[in-house]
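Retro notes - structure team

What went well: the batch runner handled both jobs without manual restarts.
What didn't: labels got mixed up in the shared folder, which is why I'm recording both outputs here explicitly, each with its sequence directly above its tokens.

Job 1
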Amino acid sequence: MNFFENIGLAFNAIKTNMLRSIITLMIIAVGIGALVGILAALDAILLSLSSNFSSMGANSFNIERKGESLSGNRKGRRSKRGDVISFKQAMSFKERYDYPANVSISMEGTSMGTIKHKKEKSNPNVMVMGVDRDYLDVRGLKVEHGRNFTDAEMENGDHRAIIGMDIVKLLFDDRSEKAVGKTISNGNVKYKVIGVLESKGSSMTSNEDKVVLVPITNAVRYYDHPKKNYNVAVGVGDATRMNAAESAAIGVFRNVRRLKAGDQNDFEIFKSDGLMDILKENTVTIRLATIFIGLATLLGAAIGLMNIMLVSVTERTREIGICKAIGASRSNILLQFLMEAVVISLLGGLLGIVFGIFFGNGVSLLFRGAFFIPWGWIGLGILICFVVGVVSGFYPAYRASALDPIESLRYE
């Protein structure tokens, strides 16, 4: 018998014992589905977070006061927080930093802005930010309609604003071209809209669509105070020069902060990929636990598969005797029963993989991620199913091949 004949016989045997085969198949499907689904879901979450964090620019980093980011926490003890980065320090860094890169200075004016236009107004949850001209480039933002701020507007602190798409939907009937040139207000302060940002959607970390950007010199006028912290971001055109840009930034910022040679840095360099590394490290335990649970489920499925194969050998003893009587060799019988176990296992695995893909992409949609197929986990699932089929089917197949043909023909 050739390979395809064995597969045909395997499917015939499955049809003969349909209910028993389906139950075993479903147990395997649950184990593989849980394994592939949860691992794919973790990948979906990490992909979504990676996309969200990269919104500040593919090749960029932030300079933050020490203790501001997640890396400020070490083994349950938070390191001493550094002093705020003042407007004077931020601007001084931008002037002194001569490395070929873009430097952006920004500050959070308020996260509870109520934006009005005529009779329309937003809820008091709009972020009003002061930014400079380089902010859009460093953050990877684009203007869909209108333009960026000019140098003159920055220098004079003019009442100009670039708004996000959610503001357009609320105040201008979702027509971005209609918003440009109109006047909006936050409290008693009025701004002329000069640009509308392309929609980027909300994420776990921010909502770039529900934001109003104003010249930072204007925001300083209304929101600055001694404890106000300013954000410094550096965008590097070439990713291979990131380390050099960071080293140069550390040296300049130490001078700006007037740190002595023996003093430790009271600021940190924060990159989105650095946070991603932390998240990946924290998901290692979850992945290992998922694999352990999936393998435990598959162990039960393997025992069940071996049991039905042993029962099948007993029920088909006379059939085995007939096959041997007409010339079937021990290897033919062994391969036939082994193939049957592998086919059942692979069918269960394929069903579980389909379930896992839908589960993983369901999580991806919740995080506004794109549809993806986890080929790596699919390959792992198929390999595990093949191994389960071989391990579970080998002993019953060996017993079937070892039966004496004469005794088998006498079996009732």
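Job 2
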Amino acid sequence: MMFSQELTSSLTLQTDARVVLFVLDGLGGLPHPKLGLTELEAARTPNLDELASNGVTGLSVPVVPGVSPGSGPGHLALFGYDPVSSNIGRGALSALGIGFNLNSSDLAVRLNFCTLDDSNNVIDRRAGRISTEHNKQLIKELSGIVIDNGKIELATESQHRAVLVLRDGDFCADVQETDPQQTGVPPLRPEPLCKDAESTSVALCQFLQGVEDLIGDMTPANFVLMRGYSGLPDLKPMGDLYKISPACAAAYPMYRGLAKAAGMAVLEAGDTLIDGVNTICSKWTDHDFFFLHYKDPDARGEDGDFDGKVASIEQADSVIPDIMNMCPSAIVITGDHSTPANLGQHSWHPVPFLISSKWCVPDNVSGFGERSCMSGGLGTFSATDTMRLLLSHAGRMKKFGA
């Protein structure tokens, strides 16, 4: 059968209808052991509940059942790309998001500043989420590191996150990531996974030695973890696929990078959710597809902060009237994956999903939550169906076949 992106692309229509994809990063959760409610179920969300009551809901699966997705594949699925064959390493997304002009021969690497103890074990994978200003000072310190077979460029992303780009060499992404994804163990080594990656492994080892020499005695950030090795992505632009003029309002660099990789215009969206909403409002007549990203639910979930995630969802609910005042022809509200606070990381659980438009046949769901969405009219479906559902509910899809 034709992949859904190709089918969707062949049926799209160019109209004046405007749509919004509002992604609450890490939206899905698990019941609190005492409350018995998920973060979304515990949150006071009158506006989301009203949309759910008048729209249609379900649960989306970002990749396949049982697989915990990263943010990259989670979003690519929502944009209608195959999250497996189109997967892009986090390094390239971060680099694009902060304005790096990647060349085809470059290799981008996502860095996390971390904390190692005296036994070289990771005790904090995020170095206490150091400030962005502290990050900039560390990057300045590390920018003098020299490798034998190329050049390095470093840049701050946000808080504990940074980007390393290897240039002017023969680099390969098939290298083991050094983030062990747990504490109490040492970082992994960037071992080559194929013969072509041996020189890249040497370059990364030289870089890590330089990091240890320069900041190894500091606190709380005294080392870096590396993952998401990737070169310049090559995706067919969403504008060409769906006959839309897409734009992104995202505060966080990686998601601006995802948008740029998918061919979206990246808007200056400020630092807060309401900044992003106001940006969309100011550009409403310039584009007809708006991707609004909100990072806080995921960050609070990864920190194990149930109450903080509840509060972030309530913040998202508070901007719904401002979005709906723009009168989108259709709006989807969902997440790229689940990040339950009592798990403290991304999970495989399906994600609550709602779509609202005048063309909806409302289901019997009266509130937006995991268990209510289980009984929603959309059922449980692949997140790659999102663009087709969004465009069809805006009247931007023609009939298939005779």
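One thing worth noting from job 2: Residues 94-230 form one domain.
We'll revisit the folder naming next retro.
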